[in-house]
Amino acid sequence: MSKDFIFVSESVTEGHPDKLCDQISDAIVDHYLRQDPAAYIRAECAVSNSILFIAARFASTASVDLSHLARQVIAGVGYTTGEFNARSCSVLSTIQEVESGLRQEIDEAALSDKDIERLTAQQQVTVFGFACDQSPTLMPLPIHLAHKLCRHLTRLRTEHVLPCLMPEGRAQVGVEYKNRRPRRIHSVAVVTSHDDEFAVDPEARKRCQDVSREMIQEAFADEELRPDAKTEIIINPGGPLLFGGPSVHPGLTGRKNGVDTYGGFARHSEKALSGKDPMRIDRTGAYAARYAAKNVVAAGLAAECEVQLSYSKGQARPVSLAVETFGTEKIAVEDIAARVRKHFDFRPAAILRDYDLRRQPLAHPKGFYQLLAAYGHLGRADLGLPWERTDKAAMLG
Amino acid sequence: MSLPSLEGGRARREAGNLPASPVTPVHILVYGRARFKVEGLRDSQALKAHLERELARNPAIKQVSASATTGTILVQYNSGNDAASIAGLVLDVMSGFGLRADGPAGAAAPAGAPPPPALVADDESVAWYRLTAAQALKKLCTRAGQGLTTEEAARRLAEEGGNLLPEEEPRSAWSIFAGQLTSLPVALLAGAAGLSVVTGGLLDAAVILGVVLANAGIGFVTERASERTITGLKRLVHPTVRVVRGGQAVSVAAGEVVSGDILDLTPGSYVAADCRIIEALNLSLDESALTGESLPAIKTAKRLGRNVPAIADRINMAYMGTLVTGGRGRAVVTATGPATQLGRLKAMLKEAEPPEAPIKRQLDRTGNQLVKLCGLLCSGAFGLGLLRGIPFLEMLRQGVSLAAAAVPEGLPAAATTTFSLGVRNMRAHHVLVRGLSAVETLGALQVVCFDKTGTITENRMAVRAVVAGNGRLEVEDGRTLAGGPARLAFAEEADLPLLLKVCVLCSEVEVGPGEPEGPPVLTGTPTEVALVRLAAGLGLDVPALRAGHPLLAVRQRSENRLFMSTRHRCPEGGGLLAVKGNPAEVLALCDRALRGATVLPLDEERRAAIQLENERLAGEALRVLGLAYARNGDDKPCAENGLTWLGLVGMADPVRSGVGELVDVFHRAGIETVMITGDQSPTAYAVAREVGLNPRGPLKVLDASDIADIEPEVLTALAPQAHVWSRVSPAHKLKIVKALQAAGKVVAMTGDGINDAPALKAADIGVAMGGSGTDVAREVADVILERDNLETMVMAVRDGRTIHENIKKSVHFFLATNFSEIMVSLAALMTGGAAPLSTMQLLWINLISDIFPGLTLSLEAAEPDVMDRPPRDPAAPLFSGADYKRITLESGVISAGALALYFYGLARGGPAKAATLAFQSLTLSQLLHAFSCRSERHSLFSPGRLPRNRWLDFAVGGSIALQILTWFVPGLRGFLGLTAFGVLDGLLVAGASLGSLAVNEATKTRRREAP
User: Fold this and answer.
1) Domain ends where: B734, B757, B788?
2) What would the pLDDT profile of B393-430 be if each residue is shown by its tens digit?
3) CB within 8 Å: B701 and A64
4) What class does CATH assign to A118-134+278-396?
5) How close B697 comes to chain A (CA, Å)?
6) How far apart are CA B322 and CA A44, in angstroms?
């Protein structure tokens, strides 16, 4: 790959149908774990027009009102009027209780090292974690900016800055790199969705353009790189979306992996992160790998770091741990890998223990996993996530 | 009162094309009688009377009858006239009517109205909708507030006749008997008799006639009995109506409503007669019975200014047979009974056809095909016989008799009889079935939709769990479970006793004296009754507690204050505030909690724990209430905050016992079960899981508050997926039924409310609960479960299936045996010489071996595994190709046995001996074959035994006895043309018939094993 390039990442707001599905799936995970930290739960959703499908498989003592919960999430996201709305949509839930043996009534904090070794990975997966010094959250700059714009877009709606705004929106940021370092903002594109009042109001279109431009300026206010005179700023290139959301296009759980991870800048496992309880290593492994990579960058061992973990069924430790620093390493890559191996415990039960993943929903009454399901599982500064801590940087350094 | 089908619209339109000439012939082909359509006669009783009176005076006319309903006149005239001259006469008489000065206005209905776009009213003599309400009342000599006086109503009732729809006249005994004689087999037999007379066989002719009469007699008796049963089906409900008479609202039978009566229109009531609305408050009517429009029509009392031909557009009229779905209103009756739109519609559709089972059409079709086949084969036999040199007439008589014996006569009648017996049987199980088609559909049922409340659950509340400071207490049937105390020490000031005391105080349940020694009678809301019952069950003296804490004030729960509070004076002085309601709201009022006997501050952690517990209970599908209290030293009202939290109570509507097993029975019978409920989905899910709606796979819950939003195609695709429909309003049941039907399912729907009526009507089988259901639900339902017991529903399905199978068994028997007769005759003619079966013998077979075993086969009890098989495909024909093959094989086996003896006889003793052996063997084999026809699956050799059918045993035994008489009684032998019969012959015959039975049974077993 050439060292000079333009990289574009996109993020979507919580009103995007795919993200809506992710949030409902993770809200279900939250509610099960809140009642029963040992719950086994898988939840997938699909939404189209005014019908939401939920497929839930669980082994748990908890009981959760799936459709009520889904409606809460839909209302929370902002779909309260229009063709698809929390009140009148139909929810078809396929509820399957599986054998209770899948429930793991284990307190990881009390386990001995031997026990942790015995709790092996249940999936065969290669996960990646990435960090770089392009942004304060140590995320690639394009996705960091795209998330930020999307949050601002949502704020415009929830604070009623721009009327007639519907929950769906998307933002794209193109960053020009020189020698693998971000040099300028190449382009910013924002797509908004509106209700039908907007369509008949000629003033609204202009106002939307103005407010969006203002919003972009605001979002970049505290950034090092800001749009310059040559930056292309595009607002609703194909005209704004009418209504947006599931009444316009369908959504599915786990289809926005790029948005969930690094915006395509770094590799990801292509496995969905949402709708799975934390016993799934394909979910928690991605968090653990990010934790390691972030600490490597925070310790100043490299400007960019990718940690790759490969898990095999039946083994607790990843069968492979590889570090890639793209030539930005300050010490030998093998040395970095050795330090990572020494200071991080990547065994599934250890991850559960270290991040207290079973009990996080209890500690977060507004939802833990559900909040991860929009604006990225990684690089979140707003949630105090355990895998975003840089507490091991000192040890690594 | 049964509602006519919507086909009325078509009939109505055709009738609406008024003829150009005032008198047009309708039917004049039969000399001596003529029917004419007479312009202006429709709806004009005066013209009818005039025509009848004047024409009857004319010497050319024997008899005349005019109908104001159809607008036609039937004239029977004397010879020397013809239709044209009679038409002229009618015209003359009519013109005389027009000239009369006192000609009533009723005849002046405008003719040649434009062709109507929708169902158009038969124009009433008065256009009531164009009058104001006051004008209408005045014209009907009545007053809105007072109504008619009782005397006036009685006078009008005598004058107008009852408010009853014209009933179809039951067929007379004679016409039923005559019906038996007008069938193809009878015609064939008559032909055979005629031929016998020609060929000199007077005795033969007499015997043939005897057989015909005997056959007709049997048919007559069974058909008459079934007709009686069917007629009885119509008289299941006797609705009453609220009317104003003499200033008082009274209930009268719907049949006693007269014009001028003021009707009270309330939701769920049927409109008893045609009426003009005089008061309407959001009044909406379901007029689908008349207009076919399933959306409710909004009604008003305003006058309409123009001519409105379509009933659906007359928004200030309410017509008989429509249903009030919402709002309130009052209306003045303008027409009753036959004069109503419904009455006219019914008269239009009046058919003299006897009620018949739907399977009858299928049987008729099958029968016709068989007649053709038999005809072909019999002509073949006839031709063969001629070739063999048998005299023409003799062979013709043979051929015709063979045809008469072989044609499967009486099948449709047997089917109807079987159905009506089934209806009677179901009634004995307290299942009322309205119509024979329902019986048949029950047997093909594929999906049953249940109402949750009242059908699957008991429609009451019972406490399931109490969470007080010290932990959780499981409760069932008002008793504590899992080590909980059987009785509580209520004297203690601890959390649980106090919680229950607050439950009792903060409630409006009235405690009535029960039976001595029995529990007290509690009346109040289900929730509160459940709480008080639990407290009483645990030993709390409810009346004493209440007496000790007199009630000072009550604040009811309201929309934005989701809890109830009561203030009491305590016996030890001071006041007590008892609060019960929505847990979140009650908890927000509390700042401390009681745990054991100690009061603890309510910190965030404890609050969160309580909320989690609340969520857990709610997740268990329980209705959860939170309880709290406060005390103060004086009588001043306590502030409604700073309360002490006591705990949570979870309640549920218990599942009826045995429903799980019944659901399982349905599943084994291949019938899908669907539960429909307005509840939230966890409640629905918990109940569905408890009764096992889908024990083998994931449970699919469709939570849809607004099904109308789903596109029809999507709903059709979704509907068969869902096991549970939650948050569905009763009005949406119709959509669910339609969607399931669109997906190709035969659907039953249970219901008891007013809003259920459209869905019950649309369902293939609408099931109403007899005890708890509303009149409307019962009226539109196809099946009424008198005891509200789903078990009877299972019985109904089993009976439906059994009836269908039994008809199949009967027909199977008829076909197999009749084919064998043809086969034997054909084979004998082809290979030997003479026809082996004489006319007399064929008749004997017809009378002895066919009818009684066939009829008694239709009385078979249900096969033991009838409910372990999937429902039959409603679109499949009665007999499949494989069935026909099987039937042919069976008759082949029977024929082979008979023919073997025939050839043996031919070799040993000549044609006479051969014929005798063939006849005896054939008859006996046929009789024994009835046992084989008892089941398609179970053979005599298979392990499972069928329940005994005494009727069949009796019929076959009797017939065999008669058959054996022909061996010994010389007179009988001579009559049948049989030769003497030896012991060896007897053994051979017995061996051949038992042998063919054994072969047929053995091959049946094989067929069953090979799929």
Assistant:
1) B788
2) 777 777 777 777 777 666 666 677 777 778 888 888 88
3) no
4) alpha beta
5) 7
6) 47
